[in-house]
Amino acid sequence: MPLARTYSVALVGVTGHVVEVEADIANGLVGMILVGLPDTALREARDRIRAAIVNSGEEWPHRKITVGLSPASLPKRGSWFDLAIAIGLLTAAGTVPRAASNGVMFFGELGLDGQLRPVPGVLPAVATAVPKGFGTVMVAEQNAPEAALVPGVRVIAASSLAAAVRPGQVRRRTSPRSMLPSEPYRLR
Questions:
Q1: CA–CA separation, 82 vs 120, rounded Å?
Q2: Paired residues of 160 in beta bridges
Q3: Of 118, 129, 136, 170, which residue is most buried, by most CB within 10 angstroms?
Q4: For residue 50, how many other CB atoms are within 10 A of its CB?
């Protein structure tokens, strides 16, 4: 089935709202359509995601791609959804097993080279995800300490899209203690 679903969170202030990301690959005019009230930065995700997938050594599906962000009435801002969209596309294409994204929330901006970049607001997003039944989040390595502050969440810290797609290259963390430096930060 060429339809896949992943999940992320849209922040309105510090309030998080779960967003379902649907990726559909079908026959038709080759291209990618993004629907669901995206802002300019999110509309530019098409180009970032395509470059990141290709530069990560994965094949870009040369078919009609429709990505829907639901609920459609909720504004979505920024590059926050890049990782969720890319994993959804690769799942729909059959590259990523469907079971790999079950119960996982995805947050992160993709560079053109496929590197996963941190995004602001991970703490309120993870705090929204856990009570909604998402026990695992995948974030950029730089966001992992912040994500791990939320009790009861398993954090998968990835450095790149390639590492996110190939779990052997992903660092997993489960507790804030393992994410924080051994020496506390001190103001001078």
A1: 14
A2: 115
A3: 129
A4: 17
pTM for the full model?
0.88
How many other C-beta atoms can be found within 10 angstroms of the C-beta atom of residue 31? 11
Percent of the chain residues topping a pLDDT of 90 = 74
Residue 157 CA to residue 147 CA, distance in Å, equals 9
Write out the two tokens for 140: 């950029």
Which residues in the chain come in under a pLDDT of 70? 1, 167-188
The H helix count followed by the E strand count for the chain is 7, 10
Nearest to 179, CA basis, from 140, 135, 131 = 140
CATH, domain 3-178, list 3.40.120.10, 3.30.230.10, 3.40.640.10, 3.10.129.10 = 3.30.230.10
9 Cβ neighbours under 8 A, 6+ residues apart: 16, 17, 18, 19, 80, 105, 107, 125, 128, 129
CA distances from 168 to 53, 130, 157, 163 (A): 18, 25, 12, 7
What is the rounded CA–CA span in Å between residue 45 and residue 3? 19
